[in-house]
Amino acid sequence: MGLWEGLFAARTQRMKASDIREAFKLAERGDIISFAGGFPSPETFPLDEVAEVAEGVARQMGATSLQYGPTEGLYELRELIAHRMTGEGVPCRPEEVLLTNGSQQALDLIAKVTLDPGDAVIVEKPGYIGGISAFGNYEAAFWPIPLDDDGLQVSFLEERLLENRAGNGRPGSGPKLCYVVPNFQNPSGVTLSEERRRRLVELAVRFGFAVVEDNPYGEIRFEGSPRPHVKSFDGDGRVLYLGSYSKVAFPGLRVGYVIGPEDVIRKMAIAKQGTDLCSNTFGQKLIVECEKRGLLQRHLRSIIDVYRRKRDLMIEAMGEHFPKEVHWTYPEGGFFIWVTLPEGMDAKEMLPRAVAEERVAYVSGGAFFTDGSGPNTIRLAYSQAPDEWIVEGIRRLGAFLKREMARRKAGARPAGKPPLEQEIGELSRTF
Amino acid sequence: MAVSQSELSFARRMEGMTGNVIREILKLTQQPDVISFAGGLPSPDSFPESHIRRILEEIGGEFTSILQYATTEGYPPLREFLAAWVQGRGIEATPDQVLILTGSQQGIDLACKALLDPGDVVLVERPTYLTALQVFRMYQARAVAVPGDDEGIDPDALEKAIAEHRPKMLYAVPTFRNPSGETWSPERRRRIAQLTAAAGVVVVEDDPYGLLRYDGQPLPAVKAFDEAGNIIYLGSFSKIISPGLRVGYAVAREQLLRKLVIGKQTTDVHSSNLSQYIVNAFGRSPAFQSHLETICAQYRAKRDRMLAAMEAHFPAEARWTRPQGGLFTWVTLPETVSTTRLLERAVQQKVAFIPGTPFYTDGGGDHSMRLNFSNASFAQIDEGIARLGRTLKEALA
Ligand SMILES: Cc1ncc(COP(=O)(O)O)c(C=O)c1O
Ligand SMILES: Cc1ncc(COP(=O)(O)O)c(C=O)c1O
Which atom of ligand 2 is least distant from the CA of B246? Predict the structure, then answer.
């Protein structure tokens, strides 16, 4: 229907589906081992305890739990978050906290209140699809800056900023925001070094941009000492810090938050009024109750053990089964390992064969780049698959990669499109 | 380093964006002795607390999937339930044509996100829901009001506005309008569906109040006349179960719905699974129907109480609507009165309302006000309307 193509907004023409849905479908097919979706492991959910808390919340439930709540979120939860952040080196008052429907909504609101079409946003290369799409929906222009084992290459960024300044010298032509996932980054698993955190904030001050620090995985650290938050170096309120209960507790109730200067939080609250008036109160009450009982702290200790074990299993199996030409990152926490295949291999093109031949799935890394690079990369999530499947899935993937490399050497093109192509085709972007 | 000011420069869409007037007024009226007819809140007595408590206690094995990420489109059993449920409004839909929203407010936002470029025109009723106006401004669209009467938007005026402004969208609350309480006639519904289809204008039919009917026959939704697939229907459980759950829904043909879904993926991924589970469980239970009857009876009584009190206490010059449903009545005063200025005096008299102007795109309506009858008790209605009547009489004296 031509009608619609004419009617949609310019931003809509750029929108692409993120394939959480497709990842889901795949994950639910019993015979396929999927390392695609970065979902928390259901085995980590503290079911009995949450059920008990939910009953408590239900018992105490008065009219206020069911009525419209404040747009900014329940004050009690804002206080708890402010208190915790203050303890983590980010002095913070409840008024500087806005509760959101998952940190995803914070990304949308930040884009909404800060970006005009064409404004530049520094993003990690590779970077989190959901963040990049949120900015893309408001017609941002991207500055992709590559990562190495210490995260965003801040020197490289500095060069680009200097070049840009020398190039046209026009004030305001530089980027407006820099979006980073500093800990156990999605998709690469790498962590930004302390030195780079400090320098990033210095650059932000010097070149007049704001930093969006998105930290859903930071608390899931398996070893080593935590790096200070980027926001702890923030002297003038230019870092917006995003947190989420999705990975440390559970995602299904959609509770996240953003911390920033009061005037920015106020603008975001105004934008949130128009977006959904307020967040659901049950999710917030449940989290408050869990926090009060110390359940989340206890839970965190246990999930760290679970995810560390899964990472170890996956890394060990990769060492055993992957061809030696393949390289990967070693995450100190979080959910993801980033795999680099030899130049010339195309992970996206290979994916349907991996599913058809070996019943194993991953996310091809190209989806995490804004500039079409990274065709030979893969993101593996160890968070969701049961332990036995991790070992078996990596064995299958290793066998598959060896076969693909042999095929390439022999110059053989695998015949025909496997039947699952249609179903897997869209599985390129996910969280 | 107490940081409270930022150097961040905001997007142009934020220029002139101030808080929602209602929310600001609500703050003003939160002193305990002020009787407020300002909010649009459902009555706390109307919440099915014990049912929700039971549902929460009996979740059992479903907890795992409730706590996990889920699909953006929504909880499949709820989408199925809704596809059948909207037949009651004359709407034919498959579950694939239903998207669960974080309140129907999100539907307004997502429709704008999908459709509006800066400078695009949105046609609206005069007066209309003010938080929708806020959203249109946020997307840098121009809201243009189309005149109408107590049967809805005037079709001739609509045709003229379409020819003159080439709008992308028509936004309307055709049933028990917020703020006026009025309802479009069946004939207007049909005509407006036809007119907009012929002109290729998307209609956002916002219907959070449709099921709160106290007299008269239920009417089909405007969406029921949607042959071209240009109508997005928005429904909500805020006023019939609980707003704190934040569950609303959109019904639209796939081509439009798909774009709303993609917008929602980056907006909040999906709505709370627990809330969706509660709505589905309660919606499918036999208790839901009787709950609806109970709250309609409650609200009917409150409406009657308020209309009677207005009859007794308001000055002869005042006119007001007699809504067949919803939560609001709309009062029109002589043009010499400014309700914006009157509010201050009313709050001194410990009673509050919403002045009319924020519901207009053009600064009109300053001699009108919106009164909510759902949230106050009988005694508060009697006393509050008496106070307001005195304030009005003083202003007219
Ligand atoms: C880096 C990053 N940010 C944000 C999110 C969104 O999380 P939520 O909205 O559930 O808090 C994710 C989810 O995968 C993520 O990986
Ligand atoms: C006309 C109208 N639309 C939408 C809404 C938003 O309702 P919710 O997001 O709670 O469904 C309201 C709430 O007052 C309203 O009056």
Answer: 10
Q: Is residue B18 part of a domain?
A: yes
* Residue that the structure tokens 């295949």 belong to: A341
Instruction: Tell whether B205 and B116 lie within a shared domain.
Output: yes
SS (H, E, C) chain B: CCCCCCCCCCCHHHCCCCCCHHHHHHHHCCCCCCEECCCCCCCHHHCCHHHHHHHHHCCHHHHHHHHCCCCCCCCHHHHHHHHHHHHHHCCCCCHHHEEEECCHHHHHHHHHHHHCCCCCEEEEECCCCHHHHHHHHHCCCEEEEECEECCEECHHHHHHHHHHHCCCEEEECCCCCCCCCCCCCHHHHHHHHHHHHHHCCEEEEEECCCCCECCCCCCCCHHHHCCCCCEEEEEECCCCCCHHHCCEEEECCHHHHHHHHHHHHHHCCCCCHHHHHHHHHHHHCHHHHHHHHHHHHHHHHHHHHHHHHHHHHCCCCCEECCCCECCEEEEECCCCCCHHHHHHHHHHCCEECEECHHHCCCCCCCCEEEEECCCCCHHHHHHHHHHHHHHHHHHHC
B242 located within any domain: yes
Residues within 8 A of B (CB atoms), A 333-372 only? none
Q: How confident is the model at residue A415 (pLDDT cuts 50, 70, 90)?
A: low
Task: Express each pLDDT in A89-124 by its tens digit.
Answer: 999 999 999 999 999 999 999 999 999 999 999 999
Q: Does any CB of chain B come closer than 8 Å to the CB of residue A251?
A: yes
Q: Is the CB of B42 under 6 A from ligand 2?
A: no
Give φ, ψ of B351 to 5 degrees.
-145, 145
Give yes or no: residues B258 and B369 share one domain.
Answer: no
Task: Count chain A–chain B contacts defined by CB atoms under 8 A.
Answer: 289
**Residue B203, strand partner residues:** B170, B231
A162 and chain B in contact, CB less than 8 A:
no
- Tell me if B58 is assigned to some domain: no
Instruction: Name the CATH code of domain A2-45+298-430 (choices 3.30.70.1560, 3.40.50.1820, 3.90.1150.10, 3.90.180.10).
Output: 3.90.1150.10
Q: What is the ipTM of this complex?
A: 0.93
Nearest to A250 among B3, B8, B67 (CB): B67
What would the mean pLDDT of B237-259 be, rounded to a whole number?
96
pTM of the model: 0.93
Q: Is residue B115 part of a domain?
A: yes
Tell me how many domains chain B contains.
2
Q: Are residues B336 and B317 in the same domain?
A: yes
Q: Which fold has domain A67-142+191-293?
A: Aspartate Aminotransferase; domain 2 (3.40.640)
